[in-house]
Amino acid sequence: MSNPHDAVPAAAPVSEAGDASAEEALAAVERQLSMLWRRARSVSQELSRRVHPEMEPAAYGLLSVLRTRGPIRLTELASSIGVGKPSVSRQVAFLEGLGLVAKEADPLDGRAQAISLTAKGEEKMHLVQDARREVFRERLAEWPTGELEAFARYMAKLNASYERDGFPRDEVL
Predict the structure, then answer these.
(1) Cβ-Cβ contacts under 8 Å for 44 (sequence gap 6 or more)
(2) End-to-end Cα distance, the chain
(3) Partners of 113 in the beta sheet?
(4) Is residue 115 a contact partner of residue 71, using CB atoms and an 8 Å limit?
(5) 137/147 same-domain check
(6) Per-residue pLDDT tens digits for 94-129
(7) Rounded distance between C-alpha atoms, residue 11 and residue 157, angstroms
(8) From start to end of 59-173, where are the E strands?
(9) Which residue from 103, 29, 22, 26 is spatially nearest to 62, judged by alpha carbons?
(10) Region at 104 (left for phi over 0; alpha for psi -120 to 50; beta for the rest)
């Protein structure tokens, strides 16, 4: 995809507009995103339970990153999801105990360890992510392709705006 800022028509920034309709539009976006985040957390909880009944959604998020990026150091993994190393270390130990991830010497630095999905972890994530895609397919089946493409561009633009605050650029899942 091209630069997300180029993909959406330009408009006056809300901070410069300052009118009541802009404030109402921002409030509506905030409400809708809050609702989406609550529902996404619920779906994430359900999907994590499909991997293992005791799995927390945070651990599912780690598996998703590992599936996308491949072997990665603990510090990079923590940074990619925006949580501390102790929390990630605890989740990795849990996932390792389930046989879903493995630690191996980092080929670039033998003192460090890279974490990767095991064959079992890859199989579980394949099944669960297929189920996640099916949920999207069901929710968005009636949307015209043009609306889906526009929605993707707007979401990309919103997500790119967070990079200015130091959030890492996410890889495509």
Answers:
(1) 57, 60, 61
(2) 14
(3) 105
(4) yes
(5) no
(6) 999 999 999 988 777 777 889 999 999 999 988 888
(7) 13
(8) 72-73, 101-106, 109-117
(9) 103
(10) beta
